[in-house]
Design a protein that fits this description.
- By secondary structure, the chain is mainly beta.
- It has two domains: 110 residues, no CATH class; 93 residues, no CATH class.
- It is built from two helices and 20 strands.
- The strands form six sheets. Strands 1, 2, 5, 6, 11, 17 and 20 form a seven-stranded mixed sheet that branches. It has a four-stranded antiparallel sheet with strand order 7-16-12-13, with no helix packed on it.
- The protein starts with a strand and ends in an 8-residue tail after the last strand.
Amino acid sequence: MSTDFHDVVFPLALSMQARGGPQRRTDIITTGAGRENRVSRWACSRYHYDIGSGLKTRADLALVLNFFEERRGAFYGFRFRDPLDHSSAAPDAAVTPFDQVIGQGDGTRMAFQLVKTYGGLFAPYARPIFKPVAGTIRIAVAGVEALLGQDADCDPRTGLVRFRAGHCPAAGQQVTAGFRFDVPVRFAEDRLEVALDAFGSGEIAKISLIELLCQPEKA
């Protein structure tokens, strides 16, 4: 992703009006007796967004057009702030270093991928977080907050936490984290359709974004 990704955030004022959410892929085979066999093809959700419906002014249109051209359409990825889901904490709650469990120490493991877990009773889903927001990341080990830049580091380009020498979590110690995050996306198409009306306002009927499929960094 390093060569085809621009580490820039889509304009926040426009992203707050977006629609979208996660997509899964499930193959369903129905037998002659009416019984269903279901197979989940994707290990992770893939998020899709439509940012077109909230753009009404010429200034909005110019901003998106400029952003689209600099990304070369669908070629370069970028950060997108999901208006509904962009924090490790509960809605409207402050980020704490204890929001999400990201792993357990074994005395030798030095690196942990940020994740956000959904659900918990039946089949919790741990979503890898690859684009945390710099300056919002907090880490704790066994309930004690670690100092970023001293005890550990977290790369906001990958979401990978690395503990420094002498600060490796001991066996059985739970590692937790709190953060805000963006979704790595690209424009779904290489084309924009712009319509201007007689009153000087405009509308782009649909601008689709699709999440980039990434793999966690090796710990």
